[in-house]
Every structure is written in structure tokens, then in C-alpha cells.
Amino acid sequence: MKRLLPILMLAAATATAAAPGPAPVLPDAPAGWQAAAARDIAAAYDITMANHAGALDPHNPSFVGNLEAARDHGLALASRVTDADGYLAAVQGFTARIHDGHAGMYVKFDRGALASRQWPGFVAAWRGDLYVHAAEEGAARQGERIVSCDGKPARQLMEENVFAFQGRSDEEGQWWSLAPRLFVDSHNPFLRRPERCVFEWGGERIERELSWRPVTDQASAWHVDDMAPDTLPVGLTEPRPKLFWMAMPTFHPSDAERAAYHAVYRQVETQRDRFLNADAVVIDLRRNGGGNSVWSARFAAALWGADRVRRRAEARTARERVWYRASPGNIAHFRNIVETFTAKKETAIASWAAAHEAGMRVALAAGKPYYVANENAPAPAANPQADRPGEPPAFSRPVYVIVPGYCASSCLDAVDVFKLFPNTKLIGAPSSADSTYMEVRSEDLPGGLARVIVPVKLYVDRPRGNGEFYRPDITVTALQWTTAEFRAVVERDLAPAATLGK
User: Is CB count within 10 Å lower at the N or C end of the chain?
Assistant: First the structure.
């Protein structure tokens, strides 16, 4: 559990350090937007080189060349920018070429400066192939397979019209999570929106001309609901006797959601006998976009036992080391955390940040590129799988973890912990992935139109490798990812064991 504390602290600290400032002044002419795009992409490159944990990483000698290629690509796009939509597209193109969900740029200005988005009356979904997830009358039929558009197969469409500007196509979960964006016209000047598509239904194919129109409230709802139409609030329910359902839709909980998490921990700890005799426990990560993995770790500790989780986690990460890039910008970031949380009397966070600031200062003064935070980590316990005298009974009932395609960052940290135990099965989609560069800060770029994202640390010998994702034990290809659908999946998987038990 100690390893998770810095994640909690930096999450809180970064939220404070990156508080929004005044609205930027937008360019009022095409030449201004073009100059701003070129200026900000060049500045983002410079700041990234000076502070990113990967820029001096001896384990990744291709990092600098890849970043240079991303800069050159972004600047080539910037040379063709004439408005806010083009600026956004150039920023996205630069970020996509970096190929890391924890690095790049994002715009700060009000999206009101952008042209209104359009759609053709239907929303796509990826379930191993491209399908119509939902549609207005006459636009398409729900469940139709989208074969091609303008002569381009579905995969080529996704590569050119989505992954060239968003996401990472080598992570299978990104296909599931980003497919709804394929048929959204964001007025990217570097893309051509589809005009005619071929749909397949029951073995028969039909070609339709797309009718683009302004995005409606229904369209927005369908885009959001693609993989979670009836998300449950944070909390533990029992949809039938002996089946427990733990909803974790966020690791950025509000005050009420934090209270709900704590109530669950108390319930699991005080009613442990009920869980030891459960048919199954379902952990629902739909809508979870990451945040702070302490919430999932606390649940795992309550369910399996804190010492069991700790021993297995320490054994799994025994060789793992955490390197912090020692740069003036990163040191100033940690100094800001110290000052902010000292004023708030949050002494634990301030002390943690002060220790890291001091370590980076020493490394920088010695001419070392990194401060190694856990260089002298203790050896893991012998035989970590074995129970210890006096421990509570082991929890061995089936656990099903619903994993959406966008699961990354602390959502993946949660899966890492749950998969420490052999009674855990993953159901749903392939996950997304992380690089080994984590714990981000962000910094304003000149003019205030955008911020650059900078990961300050890197993992060395992390068990889950760079770009590695989870594949489900049970893939759920249903178009509607409802709670009822997942309950049916769980019940079907439990049925053989229930029959044997009779």
C-alpha cells in the first residue's frame, strides 16, 4: 500500500498546481492562428525535451528521434492552419505522433471558438469490427456492420480519420473507445469526412449516401453511452443474494463518492463472512478514466486482506525502480506543491513533495539526470503467496472485473492489483495501455491557448511493460454494454460451477 501513497499525493497536488488562469486572447486572423500553432508546438517540444522523463532515458534511445518527428509533423500541419479548428487539429496531430497518453498538448480556449460539430445520424462502435451502435430513423440500422466508406475498409477509415489525430492504434482497447468519434465531423481541415458507406445486414449489403447535420443532444448522449449506457454510482449493491456488484466509475471521486467508497470498505471488512460465501463479486470499471488508484487498492485490501495484497504487490514490483527527471522545471513544480500544501496544513503531501524536491536537487547538482526515489527498496517477503498465522480466512470466490477499452493509468493499476489473485477474471474489452512515463504535470504555452503535458517520472523494470495492455478472459461484444448484459455474462460463466455444486 505504501507504493500507492505518492499517486494519491501527486494527483491532489497536480490538480492545484494546474488551476486554470484567465481566458486567452484568441487570434483574429488566419495568419495569427498559423503563427500560434507553430509557436506552441515548437515550445511544447522544447519544454518536453527539457523536462520529460523519457528525454534522457537510457532504456529508450529512440525517444528523442520520435519526439523530433512529432514536432516536425506538427509544424507541417501548423503551416496549413487558418483557424481554431486547424489549430486544434495540429495540436492533436503533434500529440498523436508522440504516441503516449501521458504526453503532448491540449487546448485551453473555449470550444465556442470552434465550428459546430456534425454527424450523419448514427454512431459507430467497435466490437472486433465496426458496427452501427445507435442511429436516427433512416440514417442506418442499429447493429449493421459498416463495411467501408468511399472505398476504404473500416480499419483504414479508423487509422486515417481517428488514429492520425487521436489515440494509439496498436492498443486494442483504443479501437473500442475511439470508434464513436469516427463519424463526427470536427472540421479538421486535414481530413475528408466520409460521403458514402456500405452497410451489411443479414449477409446483404446496401450503400447509402451520408447526410451530415449538426450534432444533437441525442447524438452526444449516444457518443458518451457507447460503453456505459446505465453506469451505476460508486457503491456496492447485491442484485441477487450472494452476487455483489462494486461500481467504480471514477477514481476522481467527489466528496459524496469518497464517502461511498469508505462505506463500502467498512461493509466488506465488517461483513466479511458474507463475501467469503458469495457466489461472485463483480468490480465494474465502466466509465472509469483513471485518477487515483488508492480507491481500488483499498477495496482490494478489504476483500482479500491488506497484508495479502501488500505481499503480492511488493513481490510483483520487487525489481521496479522509479526515476524522477531532475530538471529545474520539475523541481519548481515540486516546490510549488510543498508551498501550496504547507499553507493548507496538508503536512503528509508537503513532506512527500519536499523529499522528492530535495532528491532531484541533489541529483541535478551532481550532474545526474534522475533521482531514484526507491533505490534502496527492501526485499520482498519470502513466499508472498502463503498465508501467515493469524490472518483472516482467504477470499477465494470468483471475481469478475468489467474492463472498458479506455481503461488506462490508475484504472490499469487497479487491474494490476486485482489480477494478483487467481480468482479474478477480466470481462469486457481489451484495455488501453500506459507507457513507462507517468505522474504528469502541465505547463502553459506562450499565449495561453494550450498547455503541454509532462510526465516527470519513469518506471524501470515495471512488470507491465511499455504499451502492454490487458486482454479479457471473456470478451463482451454486445453493442449495448448494459448492467443487465454483464450480469448475464457473469451468470452464464457461473452456471457450470453451480451445476457441479448441486
Answer: C
User: What pLDDT does 502 receive?
Assistant: 53
Q: Select from 3.30.70.260, 3.40.50.20, 3.40.120.10, 2.30.42.10 the CATH code of 118-214.
A: 2.30.42.10
With contact defined as beta carbons under 8 Å apart, do 444 and 22 qualify? no
C-alpha cell read off for 43: 515550445
Angstrom distance (rounded) from CA 37 to CA 74: 8
Q: Give the Cα separation of 162 and 160 in Å (integer).
A: 6
In Å, how far are 219, 273, 278, 397, 491 from 242, measured between CA atoms? 38, 11, 4, 11, 12
3-state helix, strand, coil in the chain (%, to 5): 40, 20, 40
* Beta bridge partner(s), residue 145: 131, 200
Please state the pTM of the whole predicted model: 0.90
Burial of 411 (0-12, 13-18, 19+ CB in 10 A): buried
pLDDT digits (tens, 9 = 90+) for 319-360: 999 999 999 999 999 999 999 989 988 788 889 999 999 999
Look at residue 385 and tell me whether its pLDDT is greater than 90: no
Amino acid identity, position 501: G
Is the model's pLDDT at 208 over the cut of 90? yes
| CB of 243 closer than 8 Å to CB of 282 | yes
Q: How would residue 381 be classed by pLDDT, with cut points 50, 70 and 90? A: confident
